[in-house]
Amino acid sequence: MTAPTAPATPSTPSAPADPRISTRRNTELALIFAAMVIVLAYSAAVEDALIGRVTARFWLIPALLTLVFVAAHIIVRMLTPYADPAILPCVALLNGLGVAFLRRLDLGEVDTANRAHYGAFAGLGFRQLLWTLVSIVVAAVALAIVRDHRVLSRYAYTLGFVGLVLMMIPAVLPSSLSSINGAKLWIKFGGFFQIQPGEFAKLLLLSFFAYYLVRKREVLSLASRRFLGIDFPRGRDLGPVLVVWVLSLLVLIFEKDLGTALLYFGMFVVTLYIATERVSWLIIGLLLFIGGAFLANELGATVGGPFANFHERVEIWLHPFSDATGAGYQLVQSLLGLGTGGLFGAGPGAGQPGNVPFVNNDFIFAGIGEESGLFGLTALLVVYLIITVRGLRAAIAVRDSFGKLMAGGLAFTLGLQVFVIVGGVTKLIPLTGQTTPFLSAGGSSLMANWLLIGLLLRISDASRRPVNSSPMPPGQPQRLAGMTTEIIR
Amino acid sequence: MNAPLRRVGVVALVLFGLLFLNLNWVQAYKANAYRTDPHNSRTQLTEYQRQRGQIAVSGGQVIVAQSVATGDELKFQRAYPLGAEYAPFVGYKPVSGLATGVEQAENDFLSGNAPELFADRIKEMFGNKSTGGNILLTIDKKVQDQAYNDVVHNRSGAKNAAAVVLDPSTGAVLGLASTPSYNPTPLVSHDTKTADNAYEQLNADPDKPLLNKATQETFSPGSTMKVIDSAAALATGQYTPQTVIPAGASYTPIPGGTFTMHNAEASTCPDPNITLIQALTVSCNTAFAQLGVKLGSAQIKSMAQAFGFEDDGLSLGRDGHGSGLGVVASHTGDMTDANGQDDPNYVAQSSIGQLNVRMTPMEGALIAATVANDGKQMRPYLVDKAQAPDLTSAYTASPKVLRTPINNQVAGDLQQMMESVVQSGTGTRAKIDGFQVGGKTGTAQNAADDGDHGWFIGFVMKDNRPIAAVAVFLEHAGTGGSGEAARIAGDLMKTVISEKGIK
Question: Which residue ranges are recorded for the region named Disordered (chain A) (predicted)?
Answer without folding.
Answer: 1-20
